[in-house]
Amino acid sequence: MPTKKWTIKKVLKTIWITIGLIFTFWLFYSSQSHGVSDQSLESNDKITTQNTSDYYSFTPKTVFKNVFVFYPGAMIDPKAYVPLCRKIVENNIQVYLIKMPWRLASNGYNKPKELHLFNDSTKTYILSGHSLGAKMAAQFVFENPELIDKLILIGSSHPKNISLADSKIPILKIYGSNDGVADEKSILENKSKLPKTAKFKKIEGANHSQFGYYGFQLGDSQATITREQQQAETLKNILEFINK
């Protein structure tokens, strides 16, 4: 007959395993895309879309100059950024939304270079990313300063361990006042790692998770504006920066 102590151990072990499974499921669910229609991945009379193992691409059918390459946040389903990318391409900008190995930009930030996406000298290349994607976009520019014309960092306190203070390209940082993952204090503490010409755009009421269409992220704060408002402000800042 099992002792009382042994029975309590088994119960506690079962509880911890159950909690771990629930937490793992929640993390997986929250990182999946939500509210992204299949129509946003379809071509039409103005845009050609492509869904490959390496990226989603959105290409205007008219002549374009600007190419926007985007790195998703850590573990986030890249499809969660399709609504933003779709809005960008509607402004006559080609977009590549990169699919990272294991959903980690740290494992695939050189992918666009390996895929020769920056090889057309007649184009202007804008590299961007959210969260870890922004960190690795900054890392790419640090290692390949000659390949990128503009850099946009979204919802990230990076760069931290590298410095782009001497970078000659225009840089924009977009962040939310309610971001609990990349908070304003951390962002401003690392301001010296960017050139003095870098632009900082704060979206009031915006949090970390609503920069994409996915669930609530661990450590984040509640937004006081809707996801649609946050996305619209993000798009506005991106387009103003690209077209300047």
Describe what this molecule looks like in 3D.
The protein is built from seven helices and eight strands. The chain is an alpha/beta fold and 244 residues long. The chain has a single domain (31-243), classed as Alpha/Beta hydrolase fold, catalytic domain (Rossmann fold).
Task: Present the secondary structure layout.
Layout lengths: L3 H27 L16 E5 L3 E6 L5 E6 L10 H8 L4 E5 L6 H4 L2 H4 L9 E7 L1 H12 L6 E5 L16 E6 L7 H6 L9 E5 L23 H17 L1
Parallel strand pairs: 3-4, 3-5, 5-6, 6-7, 7-8
Antiparallel strand pairs: 1-2, 2-4
Q: How would you describe this structure in keywords?
A:
alpha/beta; 8 strands; 7 helices
Write a concise synopsis of the structure shown.
By secondary structure, the protein is of the alpha/beta class. The protein contains seven helices and eight strands, in the order αβββαβααβαββαβα. An eight-stranded mixed beta sheet has the order 1-2-4-3-5-6-7-8, with helices on both faces.
Question: What string, H for helix and E for strand, traces the elements in order?
Answer: HEEEHEHHEHEEHEH
Count of distinct structural domains: 1
Please state the structural category: alpha/beta
> Strands of the biggest beta sheet: in what spatial order?
1-2-4-3-5-6-7-8
The helix content, as a percent range, equals 25-40%
Say what oligomer this is.
Answer: single chain
